[in-house]
Amino acid sequence: MIKRNGKIRVWEPLMVGIAAAIGLLAGYNIQFDHADYSLLQYNKAFESPRSLQKDGKIEEILRFIETNYVDSLDNDIVAIDAIRHILKQLDPHSDYITPEELQGHNERMDGAYRGIGIETIKMLDTFYITQIVEGGPSDAAGLKLGDAILSVDGVQVSGNETPFHSVREMLKEESKDSLELEISSIGSRFLTKEIVQIENIEIASANESYLISDDLLYLRLERFSGNTYEQFIESLDAVAADQKKMHLILDLRDNPGGYLPEAIKILSQLFQEKDKLLTYTEGLNRKKAEYRTTGKSFYNIGKIAVLINGNSASGSEILAGAIQDWDRGIIIGEESFGKGLVQEIFPLRNGGALRLTVAKYYTPTGRLIQKSYRSINKDFVADSIEFETRLLNRTVESGNGIIPDVLIASDDHNICDSHLSYADFFIIRTMRNNGSVELTENDFSVEAYTSFLSELHETEEDISLDQCKQEYASDFIYNRYIRLMEGGTAYLKAMNSGDPYIKASLNFIEDKQTTLALLSKEN
To answer: Which has the closest alpha carbon to 362: 331, 395, 335, 402?
Structure first.
């Protein structure tokens, strides 16, 4: 709370917060670290918002609060609530990001984080290691799958109520180069202490790939981070360095988007021709900006199948839309999320940031894929307008996300997602009870897992197999075991076995006809 001349001015942080928000909404430019990934160019000229100059309504209200309100206020909460109330009048994607949220956002977008290279789960009162980054500091220190972390630099984190975010902060401590972890390992009666270095760890976003056949590559894109294109190229180099023709299954399911330039660079590798329009952006205060192919593709990519679902958004929809509009490949799956609005991040002085929608993006045919949404100020109703693809004149619609060429209902592989952490803990606990990471088929029975869930009932939310059908549960748990033991790529192979999306992709790619002939036949 700010004091001046003996008075408590609760309204000042609120005034600053609202003024900052209004200023940013007026389109002010603020320089920031990720300028290389800026989606649009910004005006650097400062112009005071006319509405604020006119009658000072907000300032008048805040002065009444200052002199008359009955109780003290939490200034930060009031300021944040005021900003978020303003943003709710705009669209679903403009929002205020707290300093804590911004740190996580930047890590995801940069494609790296500071830490020791592990994934953990917390069940009951203990943290367990479920993944170790190969070649990372924890791997070098000898940490193992299933290790229980008991303390970090002498601070006990097991057997108490230590929250996950506190341990996360301990494992990336900025003032330290290394940590001492007290560990309880599977099959050992003794506790050990390990010194683990803290380093920058790369986040995988496009390096989970494998060959389905000699000339068919499956590649999953998790998001479009600052290093996604680089990882995409590395994945292709691993199998296509001899420049032979490769067909591609590009999995964008659950990909929320990210940096537009990364999506554009990947798209340019999928077209041989130069100057093909891939997308364009435009807003009331933003000039039209077009993004086109470079004509510098490094690989001979043949047929392309793009997999999407209801969680494929933004950059994923740009990529799928360009492939569909140019009749370059086939889109398989569910109708996409429908996010056709471009956001920019504006850092604020308090360490937080404003995520503000500044433009709309369109596919090459001119489709706006943004779905209808409701805001406080007004509702946006998307027009369902039909367009024609560039080569085959196939009918495609705007205003409903990307509608696949081959529609497939939500696949059964996602039906057990609510059990991810429970399945992992069930496996880790079974390993620890057995004293070995090597498990047998009997360890993955539905009966054993059901019994485990009933044991948790006293301390965890009421969970059951209702949403994870029993006929899938055993395979699901076994596949999670594969992930724990062999990593993400092996897990994807197991999950893709029998996947209807993959089956549809193979039907398309293995057909002897050309892509254009097949798409024309589909139409």
So the answer is: 402
